[in-house]
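Help! Submission page says 'invalid entity' but I think these are all valid:
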Amino acid sequence: MSNSAGGPSGIITRTYKSGSIIYFENDKSEYIYILKAGKVFLTTVKLDTGEETKEEVRQGEFFGVKSALGKYPREETAQTVGNTMVLQLTPADFERLVLKNASVVKKMLRVFSNQLRRIVKMERSVLGESEIVNADAELFKIGEYYYKAGITKHAQYAYKRYMEYYPDGPNAALAMKRIRGIDAGEPPPMDLGVHDAPAPAAAAPQAHRQADAPEDFSIEEPSGPGDMIDFDDSSEEKETKPSSSSSSSIALEDEMNDFLTEPASAGGDLDDFSLDEAVSGDSPKELSDAADASFAKGNFPIALDLFQKVIALNRTASPEEKKLFEKAHFDAGRCYIEMGKPKEALDILSKILRNFPGSAYTKLAIYHIGLIFESVNQKEKAITYYNKVLNMSPKDKLNSEALNKIKQLQGR
Amino acid sequence: MALDEKFFDKFGVEYAPNEIIFCEWEPGNEFYFIQSGNVRIVKLIQNREKNLSVLTDGDVFGEMAILEEQPRSATAIALDHVKLLKFHRDNFDTLMSGNPQLAYKLLVIFSKRIYDAKRRLMILLLEEPQIRVMDVLVMLAEQDPHLDLQNEVSLQVTAQDVARWAGLTEDDAQKELTHLNRTDKIEIFGDRIVVKKIREFQRLVASRRKSMYQ
């Protein structure tokens, strides 16, 4: 081979005596080799059994490619048998060489992807994930998951794919029914729990569903999809604090401090909702339990009404009552989120920060404010709130969730 | 890393924020190259949506579709406005022949993925939960080329992540971490774990791995 005048590093020819080691397992090296003459054996230790396997490199073949390209330690030991000559390439040399020869890259790609498949399969089996699964049933489950979580847009996607690939599948009728239901703006049926629903990102798609289906709820006029568009920097500031600056996260910092220091205002202004559903009692505890049950069923408007009633009672004498009172604020906020009313949600959650700074719900409320901003694509603000959560003690799962959110929003 | 502009005319697709690109278990026939934007990769684990990663400009995903007709192993969701190049498996040969640059990129990605998958598998093959947790920390330390392993290292990782890598329940992982914390091997913060002597963990894990084979 020519002494590669074009490249910065150059391809070098190396000769070895019999029994020489070209590289050891765990060595770090960026070189890639081509066997020109002689013999090379690669010795690998099997991951699961510790057993050694030997593989002979054929003349003209590459070796050491994966670890060099992936920039990790050698996985095998390369040893010569008989006098041997190899070409030693840097990744840049290798790239130049293979770019001229697409079929080599293609062949390597096939080998590599087969290896990858095998390892991933093994990983699954070690993790105890069963290999025999019905892809159609699993795909349907994905739809069901998002459906129950109220993320109907994602559910719709999964159901549609299901119909596309498994039009005669066992869940086809149900998938079709769900698709039509979502198209018609029907809310998920009552018997679908939301216990395992992920709170994140649920708000935005919910908003659409709600906006499409006003007739299902008699509570108030739906504000329509305009809601989401209005919920930008400027309108949000109207809601929380009139301010002339609008852009930076520093402004948000202030806003947040305001939340924490402003004197307590009287409880929320409450609309008097009239609902058909009878409520058995009117103690905070009974109302709260009924509200929880409605929430669990996914009936957020009714749950919201009940939480509002708890708030309206304004009973904070005993620690229990105080806790229910605070909880009602938080859960009313979650109802608004679920109902696609981010402004209202923000309003009531910020009351928690203002009125009960030391509350057990403060951290949750801040986290959910993050979720709200995230759901309307205000990343910077969302991050600011997640950051607040991150720095709050005690460190618990929510701190990790917040960190994940930040990483996610910052794109790693 | 931007590929030829003419590519976008032919293979370009765009997604709005929060739109699904493909979902777990749907048959996969295409792979994607991110021109711009961010893509969230999530998976349902124990009926909860888990974030696996966020991919960005120049990244490739869905590449497993190239070889075999297997359902997608995760869901890809556009995080913001995303521009992608979408390639069908059937075009793979022609595509690779015509674009060795893309082929080379895939080769590099596969090299890395193979190693990462192997490394994870090595952790799972360890028997003792304690050693697994240590090896997770070793793996993370090794993955960061900026760390000086002779000194104390700070790893951006939560107990939840450790549990996932180690194939343990969150409770079990937390228990092991607490133990390591109590014996002053590590310090746990909300978003990171500081390992006092990662070399010690490395040695311990290596010797366990060796003895495992005997």
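Support: the input was valid. A stray whitespace character was the problem, and the output above is from the cleaned input. Residues 252 and 381 of chain A are 7 Å apart (CA to CA).
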